[in-house]
């Protein structure tokens, strides 16, 4: 028995030595090197030699006779040889079976999650944690090191874009079907120059208010469209049936974060930051009311505050404060834009400010904000402020198959993670957020104080705010805020000028951005707004080469918008000259006498090709100095003229034009045309 045990131990020692050698060799050999077959050949040779040596017939073979003599002389070695020979035989039988079972990894199940710009980093970290957990707890007999699931996380545009895409079978609103494709049914449309990403299994918006907007598109989730009274029957437990065939189910909160006022450091504690104060000598800014739940819920809070204090009649006047201030399509973008705005009170989420504060040493806190936030801001809290609950919403499409098992595990993981205290630690996936009970404050991981406008700590009250937050109630107030915003803004005047130079065709889908910009702007216009469409140049030579053509004259938006949609379909890049300065001058002069703050939108690649010197820089700047009109350049990329890594707004004449205070350039390169055009109408409606 002892000899057999020794033989087995020797065999194991030899086996582990071989395994270690294989691991070491595997690091240096190519992935496709046939190491397993070589190991099997080696084991076969060893097993045959040992078995022959242990038999009496080995005496007839000189080489084996010496081996047998050694084995006979030392009994322990004989037992060890028998044990190792049997082990080699077993390995020869088991190795092919193990290789078959441990073959190439099958494709992982694919789960897709669409979320907001502000929440993408946190959701991605949670998805990575889920993948790691599933990989460590594989069931179903998957080979070693295989991934059972792959979770794709991406950010989508505004809440309105998300709603329309879900309703339209995940085809973005904005332009016509590609050539040769009849398009989806029921007037569905394609957005040719910006991808929404793959169709999601889950959506994680900022707030359940968004979900209630999906249930009633005419309410707070309607973007800029006029909606009626909120549907009192709207309920989080109600399943939303989408026009595109999908269904939405609200599963619960993934995490929470209260909304706050971010005030300049040194802001007096007793000054108060209530929205009724106009004597503080500061500007006010919040994320866009249409684009984000943060902006919508801050507007809702303002409406409730005005109503409670008897100032409901001043709702439109209060909203007007934000029409003329800095705005953005996310809290992170707003904070990024306030780098030099030290005297601005920003209405943002606590989590976004935490990220900005935490990034002071690392240099960046958002893909949209390549540098640190220079403005030193700290939070102020107010009793009753709304809370973003970041709900997990399942999206079920008719043809979904093969992911049900992983979906159940993902949902359980995400909902359990929402209440896991460790997720909110400084190194947790939700650092800076709070649990669904309101615990896990950002103050635990930064120096951010949790005090109200009087400097009194409210840390203990925030869980109560979370418990008292009713999405249905906030949604009703958000509808009223949306109505007040429309009343506050004057009629908007927008003139779109389209670059028809041949350089606009140098990049695939480049000219398609013209259609997207136009339709995005038209979609946001109201009946009282005015819209026009021009193109430049008019022709190839002579006066036509230096002038613009009026395609749709400035008119009421309802008529002009329909005409513009038809006109765009007939336009294409056709002429060599690019009279960019001349076009800007003509457009600005056409807006003289219009509403203050009228906006000229120029869609161009910035490349200027012209036989003569044309209009000079100083002459154009004189024209811009003498006008109230503003110019927004939508840069779609300069093709061959755009160097690798160069921003679209840095091509050709665009840096020079954007240097004037009345001109702003927005990058629409790489499919961001609708993002660049969003908010133009809102800006024009607010005036200067």
TrEMBL record:
InterPro entries: VWF_A, vWFA_dom_sf
Coiled-coil regions listed: none
Domain VWFA: 493-662
Flavoprotein in keyword set: no
Residue spans crossing the bilayer: 36-58, 79-101
UniProt keyword annotations, A-Z: Membrane, Transmembrane, Transmembrane helix
SUPFAM superfamilies registered for this protein in UniProt: vWA-like (SSF53300)
Matching SMART domains: VWA
Signal peptide (UniProt feature, chain positions): none
The keyword DNA damage is assigned to this record: no
Protein name, as recorded: VWFA domain-containing protein
Species of the source: Actinorugispora endophytica
Lineage: Bacteria, Bacillati, Actinomycetota, Actinomycetes, Streptosporangiales
């Amino acid at each position: 028995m002892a000899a057999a045990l020794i033989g087995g131990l020797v065999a194991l020692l030899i086996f582990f030595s071989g395994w270690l050698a294989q691991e070491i060799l595997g690091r240096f050999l190519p992935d496709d090197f046939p190491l397993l077959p070589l190991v099997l050949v080696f084991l076969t040779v060893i097993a045959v030699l040992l078995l022959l040596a242990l038999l009496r017939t080995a005496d007839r073979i000189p080489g084996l006779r010496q081996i047998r003599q050694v084995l006979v002389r030392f009994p322990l070695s004989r037992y060890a040889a028998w044990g190792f020979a049997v082990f080699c035989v077993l390995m020869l039988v088991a190795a092919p079976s193990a290789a078959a079972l441990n073959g190439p990894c099958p494709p992982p199940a694919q789960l897709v999650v669409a979320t907001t710009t502000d929440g993408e980093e946190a959701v991605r970290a949670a998805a990575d944690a889920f993948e790691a957990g599933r990989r460590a707890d594989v069931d179903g007999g998957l080979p070693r090191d295989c991934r059972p699931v792959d979770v794709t996380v991406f950010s989508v545009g505004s809440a309105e874009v998300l709603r329309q895409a879900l309703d339209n079978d995940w085809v973005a609103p904005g332009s016509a079907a590609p050539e040769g494709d009849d398009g989806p049914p029921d007037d569905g449309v394609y957005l040719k120059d910006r991808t929404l990403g793959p169709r999601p299994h889950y959506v994680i918006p900022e707030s359940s208010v968004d979900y209630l907007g999906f249930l009633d598109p005419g309410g707070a989730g309607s973007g800029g469209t006029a909606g009626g009274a909120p549907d009192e029957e709207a309920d989080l437990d109600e399943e939303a049936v989408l026009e595109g065939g999908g269904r939405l189910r609200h599963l619960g909160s993934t995490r929470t974060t209260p909304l706050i006022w971010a005030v300049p450091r040194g802001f007096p504690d007793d000054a108060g930051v209530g929205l009724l104060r106009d004597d503080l000598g500061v500007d006010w800014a919040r994320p866009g009311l249409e684009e984000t739940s943060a902006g919508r819920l801050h507007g809702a809070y303002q409406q409730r505050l005005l109503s409670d204090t008897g100032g409901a009649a001043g709702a439109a006047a209060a909203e007007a404060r934000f029409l003329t201030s800095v705005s953005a399509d996310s809290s992170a973008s707003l904070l990024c834009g306030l780098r030099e705005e030290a005297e601005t009170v920003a209405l943002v989420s606590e989590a976004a400010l935490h990220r900005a504060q935490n990034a002071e040493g690392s240099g960046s806190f958002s893909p949209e904000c390549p540098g640190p936030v220079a403005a030193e801001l700290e939070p102020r809290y107010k009793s009753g402020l709304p809370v973003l609950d970041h709900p997990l919403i399942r999206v079920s499409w008719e043809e979904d198959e093969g992911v049900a098992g992983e979906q159940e595990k993902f949902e359980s993981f995400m909902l359990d993670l929402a209440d896991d205290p460790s997720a909110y630690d400084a190194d947790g996936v939700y650092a800076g957020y709070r649990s669904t009970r309101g615990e896990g404050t950002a103050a635990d991981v930064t120096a951010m104080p949790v005090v109200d406008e009087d400097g009194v700590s409210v840390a203990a009250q925030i869980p109560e705010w979370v418990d008292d937050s009713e999405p249905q109630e906030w949604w009703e107030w958000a509808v009223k805020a949306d109505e007040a915003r429309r009343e506050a803004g004057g009629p908007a005047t927008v003139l779109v000028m389209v670059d028809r130079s041949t350089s606009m065709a140098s990049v695939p889908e480049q000219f398609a951005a013209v259609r997207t910009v136009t339709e995005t702007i038209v979609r946001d216009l109201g009946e009282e707004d005015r819209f026009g469409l021009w193109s430049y140049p008019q022709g190839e030579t002579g006066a036509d080469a230096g002038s613009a053509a009026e395609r749709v004259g400035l008119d009421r938006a309802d008529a002009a918008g329909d005409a513009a949609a038809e006109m765009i379909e007939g336009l294409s890049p056709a002429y060599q000259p690019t009279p960019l300065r001349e076009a800007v001058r003509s457009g600005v002069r056409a807006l003289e006498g219009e509403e203050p703050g009228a906006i000229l939108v120029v869609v161009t690649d910035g490349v200027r090709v012209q036989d003569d010197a044309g209009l000079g820089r100083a002459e154009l700047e004189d024209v811009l100095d003498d006008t109230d009109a503003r110019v927004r350049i939508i840069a779609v990329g300069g093709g061959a003229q755009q160097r690798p890594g160069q921003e679209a707004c840095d091509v050709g004449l665009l840096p020079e034009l954007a240097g004037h205070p009345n001109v702003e350039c927005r990058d629409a390169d790489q499919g961001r045309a609708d993002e660049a055009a969003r908010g133009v109408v809102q800006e024009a409606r607010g005036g200067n």
